[in-house]
Fold these 2 entries.
Entry 1:
Amino acid sequence: MRKLRLAMVGNGMAGVRTLEELLKIAPDMYDITVFGAEPHPNYNRILLSPVLAGEMSLQDIILNDHQWYIDNGIELLLNNKVTKIDRKGRKIFAEDGSEREYDRLLLATGSTPFILPVPGKDLPGVIAYRDVADTDAMIDAAAKHKHAVVIGAGLLGLEAANGLALRGMDVTVVHIADWIMERQLDKPAADMLQKSLEKKGLKFLLPKFTAELIAGESGRVGAVKFKDGDTIPADLVVMAAGIRPNTALAESAGIHCDRGISVNDTMQTYDPRIYAVGECANHRGIAYGLVAPLFEQAKVCANHLAMYGIGSYKGSVTSTKLKVTGIDVFSAGDFSGGEGTEDIVLNDPGAGVYKRVVLKDDKLIGAVMYGDTKDGAWYFQMLKDAQDISEIRDHLLFGNSHLGDTGHKGNSLASSMPDSAEVCGCNGVCKGTIVKAIQEHGLFTLDDVRKHTKASSSCGSCTGLVEQILASTIGGAYQPADSHSKAVCGCTDSSHGEVRKAIREHKLLSVQQAIDFLEWKTPNGCASCRPALNYYCISTWPHEATDDAQSRFINERAHANIQKDGTYSVVPRMWGGLTTPDELRAIANAAEKYKVPTVKVTGGQRIDLLGVKKEDLPLIWHDLGEAGMVSGHAYGKSIRTVKTCVGAEHCRFGTQLSMSLGVKLEKMLFGMYSPHKVKLAVSGCPRNCAEAGIKDVGIIGVDSGYEIHVAGNGGIKTDVAQFFTKCKTEAEVMEISGAFLQLYREEGYYLERTVHYIERVGLDHVKKRVLDDEENRKALYERLLFALQDYKDPWKEHAEKPELRRAFEALSV
Amino acid sequence: MDTTTEMQTTWKQLCALEEIPVLGSRVVKGTKHGDIAVFRTSDDDVFAIHDKCPHKGGPLSQGIVHGRSVSCPLHNWKIRLEDGNAEAPDVGCSRSFAAKVENGTVFLQL
């Protein structure tokens, strides 16, 4: 069968990105031809400003070189403008007379700069700022001439002006509005920006209306005349007064256009065989000029070109960053104010910092920042997620501490960090390495950076910083994924929420069933998604779903923690941190018998035997089991420990029996698998010696009963647990803690700690389900107890089932 | 099939196929090449590579097997079972050995 033919008009970022997405999912569906009006392969248009500023070369910003087109069997016709579409005959015609037939046509014609209709607009020395040729013309002019005038103080205009100034020109920026970047910034931020640009040598005239461009003696432009009669010298005039979608070709073919080629949510135009993406397309009334939305469009369009028919584009919330070295500006969303909105403002002109966030109905709808933009990505994420911020409102402006308590707070501005500064402490990755990878490989997403550099791929505490570096390197092209719809991994487009829902609604009982039902792109998933799927199946369908050992990380298969040298550590459970002389003797005997090199007391109040060989694991378990001990699950995404203080049993301050309550809780939760590890603590009085304030569930005994705190975290980033409720009896503590943990087990995404779960769904939601609705609480509690009933200690299970022991035995030849 | 000497290597009988879990592995200890991990894919192909990740020496046999790759349990490098090469962007290679299944028995060429 003949392959379908896909023709693409326009060889820019949006179009080529669509092809990349298409090749990923349907590599053999189409014979592809690309027409490009420019002589270059696809390059990163956003980085023209650094090229102009002399910080990068054209070669640096090529995204897909000629070889890429060859490797993918794409016919590339450059320097060749398409002039006509014959929709009936399904053919396109190019300037040089060549023609191609198509089954599907993709229009990615981009936009053209808006040229002010003033006398003199066609004089030599008057240019727009759009492509490589314009950039070259500016670089050339900067070498020969002195006076430059940039008309338009938007993002592009300012970047052009900055670049020209760096190349030694005397630059004046002319703008018709009262302040610069009026669509992205409010006046206070714009004024601060203008001041710092003035310090860099730029001059500003605003508001000012251009009347005429006057020729000089050589016939080249020589001056700009304004409506108020003023005249200034100009050897180079750059028009940066906005862009217009390129629709001429589509219009000539009778395709409906309205300030852009009109497309529906599948990026399809009026003609069902013809799609449009990028700056030329008008989706729901908006033609986007920033790159991030174009990438979202590319994904959806590719999905439909591949005839999957499931993606839909719903529009984008955009953010802006100015790529002028040393100046940090960020804006996102709607900050125009208006009825029902509230502002929170921080204004410190002395320090050069301005932050304003705009709220509506307890949600963030806009943000403008100058000087300190490190939290831009965080605000943007909350904006996209429409997260309820009422609980963090009082410290919203001070930013997100997830940027790291790991020493990054001090050197906060990603752009001001030296290249040698370490960003990722786990993998030893410096800023320079990340920037280089982003530029050399054309990376756009956090995932790409993780893959190429390993930065932020281990503990994740530097994620905010890596996002910042990404944002400051590629500017507005950076688009954080919205966390509700983020795909589980590269094997699927489904999000965690969608996967959980499908497993519940369609009663999927094994990893393979889920992979088949949800049409995974890989035959049996990967090391990221399989453990998640396995957890979702067994937590949703306890006693029915198959627990697939091969979909568990080695620690949960070996019931021990793998160490850097391939040996394991064994931690027997000590209920509530209590032990006996018999247990200690058994541990000591085992440690000697199996030559355990290191014995350590853990933070969870038990004893860790480190350096056990894998083949010795069943033997050491057997010995410990004889003494009545069971696995401590110190390795699992599961209940870890219940830490206790001495409590009223002995302590003179104790108000409640913390040790015995801790033991009861730990016995109740034994064998509980969860999205991530779960730690509890019980303190017998408000002195809180068990450190209940940093546990997933922390109980603090008070004279009148118990306080329950939830969602604390003492790990990567310390989060203090939030007060949940107060109750009178131990039975209530058990029921409320159990119901809370069951809700987390049912709704949490894999590898999401309770603190992140609550950040996502809101504490109110959890309170409603667990505290306010008694019936629901009891149902949750029962479901937890049902899931955990008959749980067998894994050591015992191994002792009883020889086939399980096989995994610990080596083969020989 | 030929189970005699080729290039001074021989096919050695290892175990029954069922003794290796699907999408799992077993370790062969004490060969002249050190420890060798033998993997079984979902379509019952078997592959053998040196049980040492090219990154930091992690035991690949303990990793999660998916498609025709294994993810190292230490730092999640993905190693291709067919040739022992790390998947891009990581670079490195673990030595691979020929392995085959005949009549339900796994053979390893050493």
Note: Chain B has no helices and ten strands.
Entry 2:
Amino acid sequence: MSYHEAPTIAASDAPRLEQDDRPTLRFVTCGSVDDGKSTLVGRLLYDSKTLLDDQIDALASESRTIGTTGGDFDFALLVDGLQAEREQGITIDVAYRFFATKLRRFIVADTPGHAQYTRNMATGASNAELAVVLVDARKGVITQTRRHSHILSLLGIRHVVLAVNKMDLIGFDGDRFAAITAEYLTMAGQLGIPQVQCIPVVARDGDNIVTASARMPWYTGPTVTAYLESVDVSGDVSQRPFRLPVQWVNRPHAEFRGFCGRIASGTIATGETITVQPSGRQTRIARILTPGGERDRAAAGESVTLTLTDEIDVSRGDVLTAGPAPQVSDQLAAHLVWFDDEAMVAGRRYLLKCGAASTGAVITTLKHRIAIDTMAHENAATLDANQIGYAHLSLDRPLVFEAYRDDRDMGSFILVDPISHRTAAAGMIDLSLRRATNIHWQRLAVDKSVRARLKQQRPCVLWFTGLSGAGKSTIADLVDRRLAELGRHAVLLDGDNLRHGINRDLGFSTADRAENVRRTAEIAALFVDAGMIALVALISPFRSERELARGRVETGEFIEIHVATPLAECEHRDPKGLYRKARAGELPSFTGIDHPYETPQAPEITVDTSEMSTDAACERIIRYLRENDYL
Amino acid sequence: MLDIPTSTEPALLERTGREPLHAASHLRRLEAESIHILRETAAEFRKPVMLYSIGKDSSVLLHLAMKAFHPGKPPFPLLHVDTTWKFREMIAFRDRRARELGIDLIVHTNNDGLSQGIDPFTHGSARYTDVMKTQALRQALDLHGFDAAIGGARRDEEKSRAKERVFSHRSAAHRWDPKNQRPELWSLYNTMLAPGESMRVFPLSNWTELDVWDYLLAEDIPIVPLYLAASRPVVERDGALIMVDDERMPLLAGEEPRWRSVRFRTLGCYPLSGATVSTAATLPEIVLEMMASRTSERQGRMIDRDSPASMERKKAQGYF
């Protein structure tokens, strides 16, 4: 049983009231400026008798003083609640209004039409089950109609009412209505919006809002209200696998440890086995506490507290799951709607919030941008405010998620600018680009970030690769000294030196070379965990091995430096006489002579000591570290 | 090992005339959403606080907070900004509830305003509200360093509130910038703050006044008895019925307190709270009266009447 307490109000002789369980439909109105969105919403409030006497009095008086309808009720004043909106006669931000009919309750989000306030339109649409898209009958489908419809489809809204407004201004022309309808339906089909109802209206006068319009007898479909009351928007998330993002660990005393959150999908019962993601640990449900009391079952949408039969590590951001495993990955592809006036920058770090989880994220590539008018995919390097695109993201740690089309709660995220703290973008996950493995890690209380903070630096691996004699060790040694001068904590792992110690048992066969790289990568990763900057100077000729080393640390912690001095120059220098020996056949499998070197395809830094001094190479590396916030 | 009762209160139906709410009901959905918001606030902020105004919305909010963290206690204290002009019954109720629930209650009064003798009669409601409520709230939040303040405001209350986010950002000067609100999609809340900035959090954003009454009834939640009709001494002033709660209220010429059966739809400072003539003395009667009502609850609030955009301006200045 949940929290409850002794009553203080006696009401035993009170009249009996039936519980009022009319379902709630959340919908959004959108369309361009002056298409009449706010007027439509005001009309719905007025005609549904939601407005109370004092509100109608206030509306009448304001319509006379600041209205735009020449003394008639200016219904837009009911929703444009901000002073700036009323002064300018426009909608800036979304307004939420409530009304009810005999059959349903409604929460309507009335959203702005201006392109510059698209983020507010998306805000209102994100929690809607249906959208009323208004177009001005005189203008038909315009760019803003397309933009809004595109965002609606990305947000997964499956039901649209196309309200063709101001029919009186085109003489109630049924042919014109049919033409607009046909154009919109074609677009909706391309966008994958499955259900569209087109209704000709005059919002200001109430035609086809609540009552059928006598002025348009050729239209025989439902009125806006009749459609809103009857449309079936159910998409039952309780049929999907159980997912509970853990918001809060409730630990009031030693005997109770509960995991709180709102069930995103599915159902759960006591005794059932669940898997904690991303750790992959399994346990069973002991108790289910709900706001209505302790129960043996709970379903999607409920905010619950679960206790588990085993003491296992679960923290905020983890997801309790049952049934088929969710996606767990640190690489994903997603649709983005960009909000911030500061344009998207690939490679820049943003904070990503998904469910109760937060992690650093980098947009690695923008795959395409949508040209709103043609819906074509165009190549672009960036997204400006209000633009839509499709991007690959790389996360600091694995995220538990589902595709957005399957599960809104588990597939949606926002990107927050870490400096301005503005919400930069909304994201809808399309798919995972790499499956992370479910290896349970020993969780340590003092982690890398704590150690790194103690040292006041950002740990990373500087991986110097290149031919023998290219200058890797020399440059690494210079960088090591520069870092020491700057008060940073670094360690230099030189391939030759490691072969005197930890790698002394290894020869130069392909297998032994691979093992040499693997051990070195592991050691470097341990130093990164300790908050250090690890400099590795190793020929490391194979791309796959360098990628393996990169994968041992988190995204952004691996800086590949190609010391690209050409073979001829290296051989000419031959500081250790090795090329001479190799040419003489005394050193088999020598890289560059009779063993391949795979040139890095996209190293973070390239230096060539045949073109620059080793000091200049060192400074280039230091500059890179500064510019990318490592120093 | 657990001190949690294991069955529902059997007498609920008898006391309220209602069955307990079922899991998929309208009110349970609102409740689940509000609890999610409360838990996000507790998890994401360094030092949250719940603004407790003693009214019916605060009663619902407190009840939800008790549920959200049950069997623990809410991990934040209550803050009441006391103007010293609240109804006496409200203060008694406040102290009793905090004691019964074992929750920390912080009471803050703007002592500067008090020593300047600011009162609602001589200084007008606008100036009084600014000094004793808005400035007092800002003082209290700064004094304790709270970075999130949970309030019971609903979007159906008033036009500027209909525009506000669930997590509503405030500058270091406690200002709301309505023209530049953060986008707020799904149930994902951007809780990032720069030093000195804070957040107002409104878990009841999607509730209506009728939902609140319905929930008070369904969950049998204690409320200040002033909400229920009783015979009380009132004077009619500027078209509103003002209760004479203590001797500080100066009576104008010709004003004579009359005992009438009244109740309050919203509660605040007694000189600024208009009463409604009513005989609804139980919660079910109030819900029935509400359903038939033709005026909004804020009609009884004198402070919103100062000018059409007064609420937005007060909010921009840091009021709630």
Note: The first strand of chain A starts at residue 24 and ends at 31.
